[in-house]
Amino acid sequence: MAARKRRIASFIAISLMTMVMAACSSNNGGTKDNAGEPGNAAGSNKAANSANAAGEANKEPEPEQAKPVEITWWNFPTYQPVDGEVGKYEKQLIEAFNAKYPDVKVNLEMITFDGGPQKLNVAIATNSAPDVIYDAPGRIIDWAKKDLLAPLDDMVTGEVRGDIADAFWKQSMVGGKTYMYPINTAPFMMAVNKTVFEKIGALDLLPLDRPDRTWTFDEYKKALQAVKDKAPDVIPSGFYAKSQAGDQGTRAYLANLGVSRFLNEDNSAVAINSDNAAAALDWLAQASKEKIVVNGAASLAAGDVNDLFLQGKLAFSINYSAVLRAQNAPLKKAEFEDVLLPFPTLDGSKPKLEPYLGGMAIFNNDDEAKVAASKKLIDFIANDPEWGKKSLIQTGGLSVRNSITGLYDDPEYAYSELARQFITDPPTIADGYAEIRTFWFPELQRAILGQASGKEALDGFAAKANDAIAKAKASAAK
Asked: Where in the chain are the domains?
């Protein structure tokens, strides 16, 4: 490199010497007398050059034009379709953004919940990650721990920081830095086909007359039995264990039935392998055989069970929220009213609900201009006086900000806001969670298929998950 620099310097020096010699040769071509006379061409050029130099010195500097920046935004179907078209709202959002920031071109690519995660993994592995992503903490925090994201602290004002609960910031930060800008939320819970219970005259078995709608495991069992006895064409309740998608529904379901936690308070070890949770898993395996819970859950994915619910063939769905309720509305294949319920608990105590949390992150693609432009897009989506509220409603979610409430005229949203009191820290922020979740469904399958008792399955999960937590903590400490 040094030799290359010396060659370039020598080339520049030789070029300058050549230019000077040529200039001298040109001046020597005139006579001595003519060289200094006012009418001489060389003299005239000198005067003109002096005047031009003076003019340039007094001239106002022209403002620098902002260079256009091009960024790529990959988005899961976060927003409800407009006119049945997925991605149409995002296009409207970008058009409004460009009216304010015409110097930023946003390339939108819609990805699906099925293939999107794998597509992101491939993009990251091949250094072709998008600039912006709207996602949830499960993936975003894992990327942050791998140093793939740009920190966002410089765009979080003190007002915003103080208006959002600490529980949401804990899911958005790593090592004291903010890597996800939290936007929308809703507690994950259950949903029930209220219409089925109205038809069989068993609406009184649901806790809908209680302001907080809390209920017990025994009350839930009675409701399931009523559906089995009086509506034989409807499956009482759902469950699934085929893949990782929707794992928040299965872990919260079993944790609440067993009055347990998935991980302990500081996320340093598994807590769900308690005797009560193991008994709940044993009940689930038996209920599946008796067709009180959907049969064949070991080979069903979250999407399969969701489809059964939307077809009106399932009385209870275990993976729901106000967001999913809004997204599912145009997908229903049967006419029925779906309402939200918290997970039942063994003793009727307050449930522990994990929050859905949606937010935006920026991949650090070693381009400061793109990072800055991406921050403008995030700020517009989250905080624009007009489009911030529009976008929240289009997600079907609640605002993470305490000061923004009452977005919807709907009793289920009112209940969802009330149910925020039951929100607990999700395990997704635990060290090694990306690996922990891979052990969960195989153990559930073992229990459902009768290959292990509930306690054996949960202890097997705990052994592998605790090892993953310990390794992740050791790695982070290095």
From this structure: 69-186+356-427, 189-352+431-477
